[in-house]
Amino acid sequence: MNDQTPITTGCSDTPVLKQRGQREVFCGLTGIIWLHRKMQDAFFLVVGSRTCAHLLQSAAGVMIFAEPRFGTAILEEKDLAGLVDANQELDREVSRLLARRPDIKQLFLVGSCPSEVIKLDLARAAERLTEIYNPNVRVINFSGSGIETTFTQGEDACLAAMVPMLPNTNERELLLVGALPDVVEDQALQLLSDMGISKIRVLPAHRVDAQTALGPNTVFALTQPFLGDTHAELIRRGARHIAAPFPFGEEGTTAWLRAIADEFGVDQDMFDRVTQAPRARARKAIQAQAKILNGKSIFFFPDSQLEIPLARFLTRECGMKAIEVGAPYIHGDLIGPDLELLPKGPVISEGQDVDLQLDRCRAARPDLTVCGLGLANPLEGEGLSTKWAIELVFTPVHFYEQAGDLAGLFARPLRRKSLLTGFHPNMQAAE
Questions:
Q1: Where is each Nitrogenase/oxidoreductase component domain found (predicted)?
Q2: Which residues are annotated binding-site positions?
């Protein structure tokens, strides 16, 4: 995109195809994999089955040289049958954990299933344990259940559970909300600091004592589009949301920074001085990857809730054509600015009926399909190039310096297919 790209009403008025059928997504427990690295004084104790333990171990690729800050309190058959006092067993496991890990200041009890299934009210357990270990340890509960949550909602549930516990303040502060890789977070803080914006806090912070307070003079900007519950909790506490497109690509990053700059009275000259060089680098990096993306079609299955901002980036900055953009949930207050910029044309769908969506995808034969791991291999076997949605959450993709890498994630499978087709001349015919 360049400065002359027209702003249109886009897809803000496009009817949303709402689907309520079988889904193909990871559960919310997956968010622990990045949250436990971000919050260095926290521990995530998942109360669930051996299946949940295996999911975390396999998905996280736990390093043998470092003890992770998560674990599983495994429920046995006698627990589920109500033959033992689950609260007593949980208290015992928590006591052992905190005695062994005195560095823990925040203990998250994460339900892998609804309370009715695990026969244990973790919200009340968290309150009881907080009374026991306060003020040294704060015990918080949230659900990561795949029955109740989708892939990225685990982070949303975690941050939403933290908000009510933050202290009150009347100070005017900017709160950046959403877990980002440290290198990306540092870039955002540096850009805002260079504009003269001070008193910036982040949620989640590395340590509990670094967290901000909240009040009527707090303004917050979301860095992730899947934080609907956290957004609601912050509003409930009196904070005010700075609505903006999400900081993916040069255009999204500039619009996100501009919205914050306007809030804090940063003039245009200052804004341009701070952003001119990184904007130029981002444009150059995107253009290098967009050569293979330009004119190609893309189809999004609902998975991470990043789909609408990413479709905006790929269509406006990389020249792609979106056929369908599916998202697990569409939160208008969060996604509205990106929908306004997304060029008209694609089907916008919320929720999933996977069989029906597969039919639409197969009929469209897109050049690239963004989907979960469970769908990628079958679609590849049918000759469709795919991109794993989960990779877009685990890879640094926000802000200027990562814009080229973000475009590259989508260019890579197309480039690979082009090379394989050239190496195997009969490959295209077989598809």
A1: 27-375
A2: 27, 52, 113
Q: What 3-state class would DSSP assign to 235?
A: helix
Is residue 65 domain-shared with residue 190, that is, in the same domain?
no
Is residue 302 predicted with pLDDT exceeding 70?
Answer: yes
The answer on pLDDT for 26 being more than 70 is: no
Q: Which long-range contacts (CB under 8 A, 24 or more apart) does 81-86 make?
A: 82/119, 86/118, 86/119, 86/120
Say if residue 297 is in the same domain as residue 386: yes
The highest-confidence range among 51-60, 106-115, 232-241, 411-420, by mean pLDDT, is 232-241
Q: Which residues are annotated as a binding site for [4Fe-4S] cluster?
A: 27, 52, 113
Round to the nearest angstrom and report the end-to-end CA distance of the chain: 34
CATH code, domain carrying 194? 3.40.50.1980
What tokens does 62 get? 């736990």
State how far the alpha carbon of 18 is from the alpha carbons of 63, 227, 384, in Å. Answer: 41, 20, 25
309 and 397 share one domain: yes
User: Each residue of 141-183: pLDDT tens digit?
Assistant: 998 776 666 778 889 999 999 999 999 999 999 999 999 999 9
At residue 425 the predicted structure's pLDDT band, cuts being 50, 70 and 90, is very low
Residue 297 covered by a domain:
yes
Same domain, 350 and 423: yes
Q: Structurally, how many domains does the chain consist of?
A: 3
